[in-house]
């Protein structure tokens, strides 16, 4: 199979971005080392991928359509696949052609269109006639890996939705890349989020809780692209709650380094679970538990900072006093039975969570806990 492809192409300039609008046969896509898909690995925090997981059912649906259309020659796929390389491709303006040497250029990154590529590949395995099927392709050249990730984010947030957990991971990586790598111009709403860095900060909290073996949250959080069926809440929801309730100006923990903030937040959850328990089937680790105790943590930390330390053994008595001081319909919020699956906590709406939080804060301020000084 030839490793050099000569194709007619149009040169397209968009600011500093150079694209070649062309078409490729499915047989070209199947050349070894022609393309790769930079998939985000949920188990590797150092992973540099950014693509969502492949949905094979979606790809198969396209493959079946393409195969069915071979006999009647009415299958069509007009949407362009977006590929990119950090290298240059030779362009001949005399005859408007590009020459692609796969050994020198490959593999191309599939920035957008991995399901189309996989569907075409599956179709060709079923029907060899698909090998001659042509698909429109836009190829970006001289585009760094981080710029490719940015373009993936732009395409998938301006035209169609990308899974929120993957989006959060990309935002975090872009925040880390600020001032050390060249980043292309981003839409204002993306740039603002990257500059603030809240996704990156919130993900540090979530990763710490999920990865520490002594954490009550150990392996309970479904990370982006994770298919772990034993998780109880997803990264997207937890990050959203931390951004909304923990990463706020009145959180006294902001005076501490990030790693100490994470340890204090972990101690907070250890104290909560020491009181409420984890043995029974519980919804404490579902959205309602995350939302309520993220709401409550800043008032609690403001009380704790006056006591002098953030150890579990110091937090637990103050939490117990607050729970015992609660009155009204939700006075049982500090008891295991309240959080048992199918119990009262299972059916809370946002309004009820707000009421419980208000009552917990009132009860907290009634508490007269004084730390015992060891002699």
Model description:
- The chain has 2 domains: 141 residues, no CATH class; 169 residues, no CATH class.
- 45% of the residues lie in helices and 13% in strands.
- It is built from 14 helices and 11 strands.
- The strands form 3 sheets. The chain has a 6-stranded mixed beta sheet with strand order 2-3-9-5-8-4. A 3-stranded antiparallel beta sheet has the order 1-7-6.
- The protein is elongated, with a radius of gyration of 27 Å.
Index terms:
single chain, 375 residues, alpha/beta, 2 domains, six-stranded mixed sheet, three-stranded antiparallel sheet, 11 strands, 45% helix, elongated
Q: How do the strands and helices of this protein lay out in sequence?
A:
Blueprint: E1 4-8, E2 10-14, E3 17-25, H1 26-29, E4 35-36, H2 56-68, E5 81-84, E6 90-92, E7 97-101, H3 102-105, E8 108-112, H4 114-126, E9 134-141, H5 145-158, H6 164-177, H7 188-196, H8 198-211, E10 221-222, E11 233-234, H9 235-246, H10 258-276, H11 287-304, H12 312-325, H13 336-339, H14 350-366
Parallel strand pairs: 4-8, 5-9, 10-11
Antiparallel strand pairs: 1-7, 2-3, 3-9, 5-8, 6-7
The ordered string of helix (H) and strand (E) elements is EEEHEHEEEHEHEHHHHEEHHHHHH
Radius of gyration using CA atoms only: 27 Å
Low-confidence stretches: none
In the sheet with the most strands, the strands line up as: 2-3-9-5-8-4
Largest sheet: 6 strands, mixed
Number of helices: 14
The CA-CA distance between the termini, in Å, is 81 Å
Helix content: 40-55%
């Amino acid at each position: 199979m030839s490793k050099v492809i000569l194709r007619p192409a149009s040169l397209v300039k968009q600011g500093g971005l150079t694209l070649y609008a062309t078409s490729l046969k499915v047989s070209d896509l199947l050349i070894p080392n022609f393309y790769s898909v930079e998939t985000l690995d949920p188990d590797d925090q150092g992973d540099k991928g950014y693509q969502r997981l492949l949905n094979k059912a979606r790809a198969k649906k396209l493959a079946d359509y393409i195969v069915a259309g071979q006999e009647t020659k009415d299958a069509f796929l007009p949407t362009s696949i977006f590929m990119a390389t950090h290298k240059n491709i030779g362009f001949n303006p005399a005859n408007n052609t590009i020459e692609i040497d796969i050994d020198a250029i490959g593999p191309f990154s599939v920035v957008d269109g991995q399901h189309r590529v996989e569907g075409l590949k599956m179709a060709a395995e079923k029907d060899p006639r698909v090998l001659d099927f042509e698909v429109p392709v836009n190829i970006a050249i001289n585009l760094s890996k981080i710029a490719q990730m940015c373009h993936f984010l732009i395409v998938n947030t301006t035209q169609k939705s990308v899974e929120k957990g993957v989006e959060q991971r990309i935002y975090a990586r872009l925040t880390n890349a600020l001032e050390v790598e060249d980043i292309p111009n981003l839409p204002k709403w993306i740039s603002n989020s990257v500059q603030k860095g809240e996704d990156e900060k919130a993900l540090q909290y979530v990763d710490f809780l999920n990865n520490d073996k002594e954490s009550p949250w150990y392996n309970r959080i479904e990370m982006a692209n994770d298919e772990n069926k034993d998780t109880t809440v997803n990264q997207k929801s937890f990050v959203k709650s931390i951004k909304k309730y923990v990463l706020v100006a009145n959180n006294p923990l902001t005076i501490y380094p990030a790693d100490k903030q994470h340890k204090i937040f972990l101690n907070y959850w250890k104290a909560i679970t020491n009181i409420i328990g984890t043995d029974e089937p519980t919804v404490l680790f579902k959205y309602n538990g995350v939302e309520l105790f993220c709401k409550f943590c800043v008032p609690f930390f403001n009380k704790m900072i006056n006591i002098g330390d953030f150890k579990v053994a110091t937090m637990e008595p103050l939490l117990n006093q607050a729970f015992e001081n609660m009155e009204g319909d939700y006075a049982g919020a500090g008891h295991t039975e309240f959080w048992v699956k199918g119990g009262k906590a299972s059916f809370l709406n946002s309004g009820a969570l707000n009421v419980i939080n208000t009552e917990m804060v009132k009860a907290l301020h009634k508490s007269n806990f004084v730390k015992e000084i060891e002699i």
